[in-house]
Amino acid sequence: MRRLPPLNALRAFEAAARHLSFARAADELSVTPGAVSQQIKLLEDTVGTPLFVRDPRGLQLTEAGAAALPSLRDGFDRLAAGTRLMTERGGPRRVVVSAAPSFASKWLVPRLDGFQAAHPDIDVYVHADMQLVDFASGEADLAIRFGRGEYEDLETQLLMAERIVPVCAPALLRGDPPLKAPSDLAHHTLLHDDGRTEDGPSWAMWLAAAGAQEVEGTRGPRFNQSSMAIEAAVAGKGVALAKYALAEADLIAARLVIPFDLTTPTEFSYWIVHPEAKAALPEVAAFKGWLLSQVSPEQGPA
């Protein structure tokens, strides 16, 4: 028979260790910070070693606490997944997917009817937020993240690579003056996606690479969401630098065109990420498989 410390004490430790805060752990567990402190003291007495220490930086884990956290986090993930498997037998199922707002609106949502047709017994909840979802608090089952694929303590699988392309409404190609070469951008409005940071070039960088340094690359309206910059381009308000995956539907529908054959690769890609324990959930496996089926071979994993 396994001899374990009290479950509430382990829960309090896992939450406090993840947040490095008794107060935030208390909020998550719907108890008081004093109650969390008592549970931590009980656990430390039970295991016979300190798990936290306070220093000028705030609350920190001891070596023993840091060593225990990954296993406990995985253990609670598996408990949650196992409980869900019991409660969802024969009933409606739901998968919660976290994604950035622009990716959700421009790529994911337009495709969701295909998943619903293939899996009518699974409801999809899309959690669109720029903040990284906290899997440990149960906010999501899996996430689609844009980055280098370096996500500690999570299973990761490449969904698709990305590249940056200039896009504009077709009418701008025939405008006054027409848009035929990068130097012609001096006479058109540049739309800036400030939601991008290190994941792609700014207009100034792109113009320099295109040999059009004479074009002022800092002028023009700015947007904090990629989707807004793309919608402004669709409306004929100017030329945007867009992630191809986000502009793809508008390009296929001829609402946008790529005026120059100049694409810029990026080190960032789209990744499917989730805790290892979530892989046991049939709805997560189904959604993950469907996501991968939506990507063309040249975009997806090698």
Description:
This protein has ten helices and ten strands. With 302 residues, it is α/β, with parallel strands linked by helices. It folds into three domains: 82 residues, Winged helix-like DNA-binding domain superfamily/Winged helix DNA-binding domain (Arc Repressor Mutant, subunit A, Orthogonal Bundle), CATH 1.10.10; 96 residues, Periplasmic binding protein-like II (D-Maltodextrin-Binding Protein, domain 2, 3-Layer(aba) Sandwich), CATH 3.40.190; 105 residues, D-Maltodextrin-Binding Protein, domain 2, CATH 3.40.190.10. The protein has an eight-stranded mixed β-sheet with strand order 4-3-5-10-6-9-7-8, with helices on both faces. A two-stranded antiparallel sheet has the order 1-2. It is elongated. The two termini are 47 Å apart. The mean pLDDT is 88.
Identify the notable features of this structure and list them briefly.
single chain; 302 residues; alpha/beta; Arc Repressor Mutant, subunit A; D-Maltodextrin-Binding Protein, domain 2; 3 domains; eight-stranded mixed β-sheet; two-stranded antiparallel sheet; 21% strand; elongated; transcription; DNA-binding; WH_DNA-bd_sf; sequence-specific DNA binding
Any chance you could write out the topology, listing elements then pairs?
Layout: H1 7-19, H2 22-29, H3 33-47, E1 52-55, E2 58-61, H4 63-87, E3 93-99, H5 101-108, H6 112-118, E4 122-128, E5 142-147, E6 155-167, E7 190-193, H7 203-209, E8 222-223, H8 226-234, E9 239-243, H9 244-252, E10 264-274, H10 282-293
Parallel strand pairs: 3-4, 3-5, 7-8, 7-9
Antiparallel strand pairs: 1-2, 5-10, 6-9, 6-10
